[in-house]
Amino acid sequence: MNINGKTALVTGGTEGIGLEIARQLLAKGAKVIVCSRREDLLESARLEGLEAIQADLSIADGCSALAAALSGRPIDMLINNAGMSGNFGPGEPLDLALTDQAIFLNLNAPLHLIGHFLPGLLQRPEAVVVNVTSGLAIAPRSGGPVYCATKAGLRSFTQSLRHNLRNTNVDVIEALPPVVDTAMTRGRVNGKKMSAQGCAAEIVDAIAANSKEANIGMVKLLRLIYSISPALTRRIMIKF
Predict the structure, then answer these.
(1) Which band of pLDDT confidence, cut at 50, 70 and 90, is reported for residue 13?
(2) 191-213 as b/e, with b when 16 or more CB fall inside 10 Å?
(3) Which of 39, 81, 187, 206 is the most exposed place for a label (fewest CB within 10 A)?
């Protein structure tokens, strides 16, 4: 895809990976719209030249409100990046309210937004849907079962969506980041984290190249190990 002159909607685009994607698309000549629940982050994004809309994508009404706010606007790139951990581990109770919120934001919201925006995307000369999943969609870790489950679900949906849209103008890309240095991973001190800027650069490159998947950073190695021994990959990750 030629990014210059295109309009992109980046969810979760006011911090972390999403903000870096938005910055890099803007630098390549795209018009970029981001959304967040936090007005302070929205204002910071506006100061960088991004269009910013307040939206709560952890509920269906928030997804509908975002779609209504952009009704009639041409969108060429829908980048579903917003997410949250919703983690629990051994000895911790399962917070059902937090779990429901994580499931909606990580899995339901991308589906809702695709449902809202796909008719318009199909009318564009060229368009793309990018779903940001995770290497943990392939091999989950014991400390993040809710997050891993939602990303695995989004991965499966993305593969089916790509097949369904194979004869259209809409490309479908799955981006699979490793552990990235963001607010979500701030409490994790073990292991090396990829920079959000580096992760975003690989996603933007995948958009420009019309790739089907962006296996980012250490996920490339994970995919290689998985191709040789899925069982070994799962044993490694479940302990992580």
Answers:
(1) very high
(2) eebbebeebbebbbebbeeebeb
(3) 187
Question: 72: helix, coil or strand?
Answer: coil
> How high does pLDDT run on average in the chain?
90
Quick: pLDDT tens for 227-239: 677 666 555 554 4
pTM attached to this predicted model: 0.90
Give the Cα separation of 32 and 4 in Å (integer): 11
Reference 129, options 6, 8, 4; nearest CA is: 8
Q: CA-CA distances (angstroms) from residue 224 to 165, 193, 201?
A: 27, 19, 21
pLDDT at 4: 98
Helices vs strands, H then E, count in the chain:
9, 7
* DSSP single-letter state for residue 105: I
Contact 22, 59 (CB under 8 A): no
Task: Tell me if residue 147 is catalytic.
Answer: yes
Taking residues 30-52, what's their average pLDDT? 97
CA atoms of 68 and 93, how far apart (whole Å): 38
Catalytic residue of the set 104, 117, 147, 157: 147
Strand, coil or helix: what is 193?
coil
Look up tokens 């606007």; give the residue. 73
- What separation in angstroms does the CA of 149 have from each of 5, 15, 34, 136, 240? 36, 23, 26, 9, 16
CA distances from 240 to 76, 117, 141, 217 (A): 37, 37, 6, 17
